[in-house]
Design goal:
With 282 residues, this protein is α/β, with parallel strands linked by helices. 28% of the residues lie in helices and 20% in strands. A hairpin with a 7-residue loop joins strand 1 and strand 2. The N and C termini lie far apart (38 Å).
Length: 282
Amino acid sequence: MLDLTRPDGSEPQDFHVTRRTATSLFFAGYALAAVSAEAAPITTPTAGLTIDEVMVPNGDAKPLPAYVARPKGNGHHPAVIVVNEIFGVHAYIKDICHRLAAAGYAAIAPDFFYRSGVDLPALTDIKQIMPIVQQASIEQVDGDVRATSVWLKAQPFVKPAAIGITGFCWGGAVAWRAAMVDPDVKAAVAWYGQLKPLIARAGEVKVPVLGLYGAQDQGITQEDIAAMQTALKTAGNTTAQIKVYADAGHGFHADYRASYNEADAKDGWARALAWFKAHAVA
């Protein structure tokens, strides 16, 4: 087990996969490189939810696979894009979608690393995982996020003006960037996403961002957090906030890992939901 300390227009029926095939597009369990034998991951009941696997057009020959969870029925719901850690879409990320759906959201988790053809959650060696992650360029990933928000706007179950994004670890940085470059994203929640490359871009943040960080994180220093806060203030940004948990380390929300901090994870989740509701993703 690896205990990470560093982050590094169509109708929905046109893209449904789960009803057409018996095999899921996504790994069935938790990421093998990080799961803790002692963990007791949260499992959210899916009764009352609609679960789908879809293909999102993104301009590539092979579209972007994504996992979707939403409340059953014909209602229009606010939507949240869920951005994974370096391990791709596995049981933890799916359950995040279930939790958001249970709270009334349409949640979608794109598979940002699908172009590699490798099932990342099945890998056990971080040395195999990181080169694949590094192949996903900023431009490519941000383009996939944009394609996802465009897809969401076209779905009959989504409120097109109420789209947010949340991301964990690697995905936390993606969430910060989406707040800079995606005009359809109204608010973002970034869980312990790397800040160092983003400090110089703080002036580009256009929508409210809530950053959730741990003071014990060995990969994201308190100096980096302070520098980001200063850069945001210098840019005149009054809507971005960063919450630092004194006793939390990196990955404190990941309930399948040894890094999980139950109290801070619950507090952060409550703050995340409140943040979306307060900033037009409701």
